[in-house]
Amino acid sequence: MKKKQIISALLVAALTSAMALSGCSEVSDSGGKTSDSSSSASAGTNGKVKITYAQWGNETETAATQKVADKFNSEQDKIEVEVVKIDHDTYVTKLNAMATAGELPDTGIMSEAGVLKFAENGLLADISSMYAEGDAKPLDSLIFKYQGTPVAYSAANEVLNLWYNNDLLKEVCEKQGLNIEDVTPPKSADAAWDWDAFVKTAQTLTLDINGKNALDPEFDPNNIDIYGCTINTLPWQLEVWALSNGGGYFNEDGTKCTIDNEATVDALQKIADLSSVYHCAPPVTSAANALESSLGSKKVVMATDGAWNVGTFLGPNADFEYGVGVLPYMKEAVTICTGGPNVVFATTEHPEEAMEWLKWYYKEENSWALIEAGTWMPILDSWYTEDDKIDKWISNPNFPEKEMYKSAVVDYAKNNSVSTAWYYVNGTEEFNATLDSAFSGVWAGSQTMKEAIEQNKEELLSIFEESNPQ
Which of 127, 135, 329, 349 could form a disulfide bond with 33, CB atoms 3.0-4.6 angstroms apart? Predict the structure, then answer.
C-alpha cells in the first residue's frame, strides 16, 4: 500500500509541476487549461494551434497515423496535429516521466486498464463536452468514467461472441446423424441458449476416439478427439459470465467488490465444470486460449472470444468456414465490450482543440481499413442504427454471412452489451492478474472456485480498496 501511495503522490506532484510550468493555472469547463494560442510552444504553421498526439507503435504505424493527422490538418485552418511516437513497452513509464517534466502531450492513446489511474491522479481532462446534442455519439458502453465524469472514449468497439468452425460442425453432425440446425449457435439474443442447453449441445458435439459423444455412457473422457467448446479464460473475459449469472466482479457503480458473491462464484465454477465435470471443453493450459489455438486446431467446434478475430485471424487466415452466434446465458443474455481509448491530458493549454481533433479522429472513415478488415467495430451509435451505414460496414467478404453478423454482432452489441469493469473501476490490471493466478488451481483441478476466491479474497479486496478509495 505504501508503494502505491508514493506513486500516487508523485503523479499528483507531477501534474502540479506541469501546470505551474505551463504558466497558466486557470482550468476550463472541460477540465483542461484555458486556450493560449499565442504561446510559442503551441504555435503551429500558418497561425494554427499546434497540439500533439502520443501513440505507441513502430515507424510504419506512426507514419500511417500522421498521414491521418495530415488529412485533418489540411481540412481546417485552426489546428495542426503532430503525432509523437513512444515505444509500446515503455509507454506508461514515458508518460509518467513526461508528466514529471511538465511535458505531457495534449492527447494520446492509453491502455484500457490504465485510464482511471491517470484520471485518479488528475492527469485526464473532462471530455463530456466533446459531443453536442444531436451529434452521433459513441455507445454508452464505450465511455470511461472517473467518479461519474467522462475521461475517455474507446477508439474502437469489441464485443465477445460465440464463434464456431462450421466445417468441423458439419463433420461432427455427419458422424452422429445430427440435424445441424439443432446444434448451430443461435444468432440473436432472443434465441440464445441457456446454460444447460449450451452444455448439452457442447457434450453432443464432443467425440472420443471411438466416435462416442460425451452424453454416451460409454464415452471415454481420457481419449477425446473433438471438443464441443472452449471458453476464453482471460479474467477480464470471464467477467461476462458473472454478469450473466446476476453477479459481477464489482457492483454497477464500481463502489464495491463483489468477487465472492454467490452468483459470481457459481458462474465461474460453471466454466471450470465444462472440462472437469462435463468433459466438453479441453483442460485450461493457458488463459490466452484464443481462436487460433481453439478453432484453428480443428479440434474444437465452438469458442468464445472477441470480434477483433475477424480481422486478425478468421477473415484473412482461417482455412475453414466460420460462423458466429451470441453467447449462451445463465440468467441474462449479455456480452461485454472493450476498446482502446484516446484521452485529453489535463495539462493541455488547448482542451477544446484537443477534443475537436479526437472527435474528428474517432470518425469511422478515419479507421475504415481496420473496420473493413474486421479488426475494429465502429463506436458511433449511428453505425448500429442506420441501415446504410450498417450495410457499408458488414457487406464484406472478410465477414461471415451478412444477416448472421448483423444479428449476432451488430444488434447484439447495440442491445446486450455492457462495459467491461475497467471503464468504471480503477486497479483492474492488478486485480485481473491476481485473479489469473488464483484461478490456476481451479483449472488444474486442485481447488474449487469458491476455495480459490476465498483464499485470495483479502488480497483482491485490498487491491480494489486501495485503488478505489471511497
Answer: 349
